[in-house]
Amino acid sequence: MASEKQEKIDEQLRPLYAELQKHGQTQDWDRALKVTKKILGVSSNEKKATQCKIICLMQLDKFDEALTTIVKNTADTADLIFERAYCEYRLNRIEDAFNTLKSVERELDEREQELFAQVLFKLEKYAECVESYRSLLKNNEDEYQSTRQANFIAALATWKLIDPSAKIKIESNDLSDETYDTTYNSACVLLTSGQYVEAESKLRKADAQCRRELEEEGDMAEDEISRETANIRVQLAYCLQQQDKNVEALTLYNDVLKSKPTDLAVIAVASNNLAVLNRDQNLFDSRKRIKTASAPETEPKLNAFQKKVVQVNEALLAIYTGQ
């Protein structure tokens, strides 16, 4: 009797799994998700369908729902270490992602190592992050190598910014101009070392590389390109500011903000640095800039050092305005 019941269930499941496979092959995640729900409606203990449901939710950026499904079905999802950690990472639950990856008793696979390096960066564990990326760069050679290199250099730059006294070993092949990302991040390393002339040259090169790449794609308007290059131009403005080229820096910061960038960190840094350029003049504008830089929605986008700089400038503004 039990076997007859199971046979009927299997008969219902076979065409549904075939449909699920078809939607998976065409990457039609909405339809695939609906099919997984149908399968689980027929048989709630289908491990394969549960795991496919989680993948569909992740592909649809429904990370909260995906994580809830993982947590509710621990027996079926115990081996989805990467998926759990990635959902936690995307939900800005960085400590949870760190703990999930650290709990793995075996050696992390390549995907998990890549994610772990990003988690270390978010947790501002830059020394460990740099070593993780060094290892990934050494042990891999694929189409993602330039992205790893860019992330590695970004970790180097931020580490040098946070801790100028740190004795960071920079090897001859660490800094690269291969892509605009690596050129930009290499420039940031030079910036944190006080090599402003060299950094300016690299930032201008990164801007040209980025513009050329976007223009070759052929479907982006000038205002969209300006938004995409906003982070490069903010760093260039800072570089000019450090060389006392304040008029050029001021113009560049204002141009960036007029382009309405979508990156809140870029807006915060440009706004904060404009307030610094104002010094004890134009205090109304400075108050507006600092308010933008210290907005609650901006805080998660800034690292501890950047938050500290904004707070110091907020305090200085309060002194200037007698508050």
Automatic annotation (TrEMBL):
One BP annotation, GO: SRP-dependent cotranslational protein targeting to membrane
One cellular component term from this protein's GO annotations in UniProt: endoplasmic reticulum
Protein known as: Signal recognition particle subunit SRP72
GO molecular function term, any single one: ribosome binding
Keyword vocabulary terms for this entry: Coiled coil, Cytoplasm, Endoplasmic reticulum, Repeat, Ribonucleoprotein, Signal recognition particle, TPR repeat
Chief localisation class: cytoplasm
Coiled coil: 94-150, 196-231
Domain of life of the source: Eukaryota
